[in-house]
Design a protein that fits this description.
The chain has 376 residues and is an alpha+beta fold. The chain is 30% helix and 20% strand.
Length: 376
């Protein structure tokens, strides 16, 4: 039976949940039961993360909540609250088409599932091949962002649409982290796409090219900076005297992200890439490639040879030639990017504002290898 201190903490945590203070409740639970040994701790923690998942719509959050509640039920099968919350969550996940685990469950209460029986056979075939991947980087996978954009087209029709973007964190960990931090801090909220070189009569020579935004300072293309210190001050690691820059000696509006253009990702339709003013000067600005555009000369290993075509050049000098980091791909809503690329512009700036209302991070792309009790 739990001691009085833990019991009081449970009551306080439940009060915090009624006020929507999920993080406060989780911190309290971690202090009194850091190893998650009590079923009630797991139930309340699962409820808190379920509430967070409802706001973030994150698949991983839903799965964490499900695991906590499942373990709570196993510890105390007679707890009606745990059973009710667990069943409610499973129904919600089913409606959202979210599996309870990323990998199908192989055993259910000790009994092999059909997936489990199949896995036994498959494992025998894969065991030798698995050795080849022993050194593979399993820290990151694709994250996901949902961008809400509004604009009025040339016919006067107002649009309010969402674009889903896969964020390739394994290939571009610094850029994806920077993008996520800026988005979560609200830096992109109500920022415009200040530069559109697309499919319209004002840009006949670049039909189409890209749409660019992310300047949360000036909305003009002259501002924006990295979300945290990555060791580069406007593309440099040292000053003119050769003294290494630090976060204290570099003004925050000069913080930049080093290029990750050698990650193997190339520009294509729907590519999300970092805009910059030179090598290692990537900040907050980005661009997205519309359908019909193939800016291959912006890749880190390709150079233009004429007529818009490119050839591979592994020795491309990125200090004097354009090398841009691709770190995302549109997975849903490319038609909206294409529509934005058709709006009328003056000096590449849309006549009617194209506004990023918000960017919501729905998957962080971090593979959670933590023990079960660290989920919460």
């Amino acid at each position: 039976m739990a001691d009085e201190t833990i019991a009081d903490a449970w009551k306080d945590a439940e009060k915090l949940l009624t006020k929507g203070k999920t993080n406060g409740a989780l911190e309290l639970l971690r202090k009194v039961d850091p190893d998650g040994k009590e079923a009630t701790t797991l139930r309340i923690a699962g409820q808190a993360i379920h509430m967070q998942a409802g706001k973030s719509n994150s698949n991983s959050e839903y799965r964490k909540a499900a695991k906590l509640l499942r373990d709570a039920v196993k510890m105390n099968p007679r707890d009606k609250q745990s059973n009710a919350l667990y069943n409610q969550l499973l129904n919600e996940m089913q409606d959202k088409r979210i599996s309870e685990t990323v990998i199908p469950r192989l055993f259910n209460d000790g009994t092999p599932t059909p997936a489990g029986l199949f896995a036994v056979v498959a494992a025998l075939l894969l065991v030798l091949a698995a050795v080849q991947f022993a050194q593979a980087d399993d820290k990151f996978e694709d994250g996901e962002a949902v961008m809400r954009v509004t604009w009025t087209d040339d016919s006067g029709v107002f649009h309010d649409e969402k674009v889903t973007i896969a964020l390739h964190r394994a290939e571009a960990p610094l850029h994806v982290e920077n993008f996520m931090l800026l988005a979560e801090d609200g830096k992109y909220d109500n920022v415009i796409f200040h530069r559109v070189i697309g499919d319209n009569e004002q840009t006949p020579d670049f039909d189409p090219f890209m749409i660019q935004g992310g300047d949360f300072e000036y909305n003009s293309g002259s501002g924006g900076y990295a979300a945290k210190w990555y060791g580069y001050c406007n593309g440099k690691t040292t000053n003119q005297e050769g003294v290494e820059y630090t976060r204290e000696t570099c003004q925050i509006n000069q913080w930049t992200v080093p290029g990750e253009h050698t990650n193997g990702l190339r520009h294509g339709v729907g590519s999300l890439a970092a805009a910059h003013a030179g090598l290692n000067t990537d900040g907050s600005q980005f661009y997205i490639v519309p359908t019909g555009s193939d800016p291959c000369w912006l890749d880190g290993d390709q150079v233009q040879v004429g007529g818009g075509s490119c050839t591979e050049d592994k020795n491309k000098d990125c200090s004097s030639q354009s090398c841009h980091t691709v770190y995302g791909t549109v997975t849903d809503g490319q038609e909206h990017i294409d529509a934005i690329a058709t709006v009328a512009t003056q000096s590449d700036k849309p006549n009617n504002a194209v506004t990023i209302v918000s960017i919501e991070i729905t998957e962080d792309g971090i593979i959670d290898g933590s023990p079960w009790y660290q989920f919460w």
